[in-house]
Write a structure and sequence with these properties.
Helices cover 30% and strands 27% of the residues. The strands form two sheets. The protein has a six-stranded mixed beta sheet with strand order 6-7-8-3-9-10, with helices on both faces. It has a four-stranded antiparallel beta sheet with strand order 2-1-4-5, with helices on one face. Helix 2 packs across helix 3 and helix 2 packs parallel to helix 4. The protein binds adenosine-5'-triphosphate and magnesium ion. The site of magnesium ion has 4 residues, from helix 1.
């Protein structure tokens, strides 16, 4: 089966601390994989390694069967990866919601009118059209999270890497996200502490511990 992501014996250490070691994971084409684990177990660090924001201290990472050794190797895959950070507060590039969501499409050369139309559609789909002209930095944490997700989904990346996509979201917003993610056939790695949310997305759940990533099903 064709794989989008392969991690082979990945370890990650900071200057002072070993976070995890010998982690292996294969994510197939269009497979959704969830990762749970205790606070500080390294879930966000692992997602950042896959997203090209950190480099592992040991082990091998492959994206679409291409070995990634350096941050430079991510360049040609950057637009294939849609990464939602755990903390989105410094994720935004434009002052208003509509400008920020349009920005990613404009950067890909899409005309302003078309970018606007698509942005309005994703805001509607996510139930946040009423936020269109709001200043991003006046939004609540949950509102910011869903706007950040809109800006990622709109570019239709081949792989979605979502770090706690529903933390701070109310039930209605969470349900909308579940519907949207279930309607998208893409490879996804979803980090979450919300077991009920994960169970509605995928049966493939791993638990990250210091030296293992165990399938818990
Ligand atoms: N740059 C860094 N320098 C030192 N320690 C770091 C650094 N980055 C992360 N850590 C530590 O690595 C560990 C793993 O952090 P990480 O954010 O990956 O955990 P997590 O599993 O996502 O936790 P949470 O569930 O709280 O989000 C933590 O103990 C954190 O303090
Ligand atoms: Mg985290």
């Amino acid at each position: 089966m064709s794989c989008s992501i392969n991690l082979k014996n990945i370890s990650y250490k900071t200057d002072t601390k070993k976070i995890f070691s010998n982690i292996s994971l294969d994510v197939s084409h269009e497979e959704k994989v969830a990762i749970i684990g205790a606070n500080g177990s390294g879930k966000s660090s692992l997602l950042k390694i896959i997203a090209g924001l950190l480099i592992q201290t040991e082990g091998e990472l492959y994206l679409f069967h291409n070995k990634i050794d350096k941050l430079k190797d991510f360049k040609k895959f950057r637009s294939d990866l849609g990464y939602l950070p755990q903390d989105v507060s410094d994720h935004f590039l434009c002052p208003t919601v509509i400008e920020d969501v349009m920005f990613a499409l404009r950067a890909k050369g899409i005309e302003k009118d078309e970018a606007y139309k698509q942005s309005i559609n994703i805001l509607k789909e996510l139930g946040i059209l009423h936020l269109e002209n709001r200043n991003i930095y006046d939004l609540s944490g949950g509102e910011q999270k869903i706007v950040a997700l809109a800006g990622i989904l709109i570019t239709k990346p081949k792989i979605l890497l979502l770090d706690e996509p529903t933390n701070a979201l109310d039930e209605s917003a969470e349900n909308k996200i579940i519907d949207i993610l279930n309607s998208i056939n893409k490879s996804m790695v979803i980090v979450s502490h919300h077991k009920t949310f994960i169970d509605r997305l995928t049966p493939t759940i791993y638990c990250l511990e210091s030296s293992s990533l165990n399938n818990i099903n």
